[in-house]
């Protein structure tokens, strides 16, 4: 069995205000009545269990993060219900299912259109890709629920979501936002996510602005410039790039180029529509451009990127861990520094002491927070500590308190 | 100096018909009159030279490949003209240039708006990214020229384009299509391109079909299914994925799902709109869906991905080469097999024998073609040889006949 709270520290103690939320659950998925139409006895106990960890970094209010921490795993469970039998059956997933799963008399197993009845070329779909699809759609359903309930239930703001699902021997890491997950295995770093920001998603955003210019409301241009163009520069030529380019070129400055660029700024200061610095996540249905009624949500994606790690392909030792952190950790701590802290803290404890992972999570948070001196919270290198909320999960991959 | 024809073999001799074209040039770029507005003496000789290799794999006629092989490097030269002074000046590129470069009296150097006069945060633009932008735009201008001249000059068909530009110590590899470039350096393989196919570009294609459904003409659906849905399956649930998903999920089959999928098939048989198996390249302005008037061009991109390799960062030996090949080579030859052939052939020649690179290119083509036996052209492993055109360039990175 996984120990369910292997190590998590929220809010580094700099303020009482915290928009980070976290969740950690064992979730049991009971199948719908047999997808093949044959009613199944409840006593057969063919449900599935998954282990779940979620970090939710809220912005512009804590409502979305709070709601996601309560409900996202239930959406994942809901999406997995249809798959309970399929995932436990080693044969390839059926291409078609009857319309109403398990509705009495609606169908029988002959309605299952398997590969045998298919045309010549049928694409192979793996069990793994069904779980990925279930997680992807769960994010979308969560986001849609926030849209529906935003008025009645005060779902303010939005949140990044970084979620881990452990199911049938595989670890699924789903990330929508700028949190990050890495595996530290035998000292080696294996990235398990990437960040979605105005810089990393520039071309997707620009393409959308180009194809749907009405979303720019006449206030923004889909072109990127190294800085904002000034009216007196009209008629000169300036550096620019569009949705097709990674390089830069010169173009003559026209009136439209004086609009604010859809994507501007660099690093942590990069923004979409001069407003938001993260381009994927849940919520933000009410987010508008500052002093305008232009909605930003069309440019944000609620879909995560899901990476899969097969836990059975490698014999893990007690020092192998999966580390999840919000940007409060990663803004001031590199992957290598995290790996060094993993090594330093875990080696100070007995391998079978479960508290070593909690200690590690605390060390990571405190290391990113710094200590108060010189008019600020400082890191050992005297740089400023993270001023953001800092949340960390440490999930052991092979130690005590890991999977059974 | 590079030897200009270090090794190239076109058409493996199976037929007289060949849609591949190639080009290899030293191109001199004379600057426009000084971008700063001060006329420059022609005798100053401040032009730039670049070395150029291009492989063009035509389809549906040889017109586009032939035209690209004649003209693409001229478009690159044209795009570089504005940059001749800038690229030779170690200071950062100016953000703005006067409107009409070098037009007498149009401006003076005070019109150059350098970083010093900029707002607080100006993005840094490198010389390298200007060359990348110039190559990207040259592909677009080439494609636009084909669109303009397709009637008058019989530009039939389209072509993949794989182009190498060596300029000021750096190698720029630009790829639009399914050709491939790799560097073999000290036996190690460094990929210098990736292929653009209905599979690798699925989500871009689906997103376009979703945002602009009129481009699907009521004949196609932007959703992907493992195989085409049959009318009798209406109302059942089928596996699908959309532009946001990498995984698969089940959805109820509706009438629209009976349309043909925008993207279908796998591997070499993957197709956009059941027609074309490559999603980037030049030309194809007249390409229509089979037995329909629906144009396919809106789904094809003429923009290359450009990768940069800094030749000065590593001391190259005579066995280090850049290998370019059309898909006729790579369909039957892996990167590792190419690296093994590089090793085998080059070690059979003296390091200073320039003919070793030609011999290597010939060996690669003949190896992919196979030899006639058992009712077909067979490879040593008895698999069928490539039935496609096979074109290969071998460019030495550190041997005799490489750069001065």
Automatic annotation (TrEMBL), chains A, B:
Note the CDD domains from the entry.
PP2Cc (cd00143)
Region Disordered: what ranges? 94-113
Pfam families the UniProt entry points to: PP2C
A molecular function GO annotation: [pyruvate dehydrogenase (acetyl-transferring)]-phosphatase activity
Which PROSITE patterns would you find in this protein's record?
PPM_2
| Annotated PPM-type phosphatase domain residues | 29-397
What residue ranges carry the coiled-coil annotation?
A: none
Which GO CC annotations does the UniProt entry carry? mitochondrion
Q: What is this protein called?
A: Protein phosphatase 1J isoform X3
Q: Which organism is it from?
A: Ursus maritimus
Designated gene of the protein: PPM1J
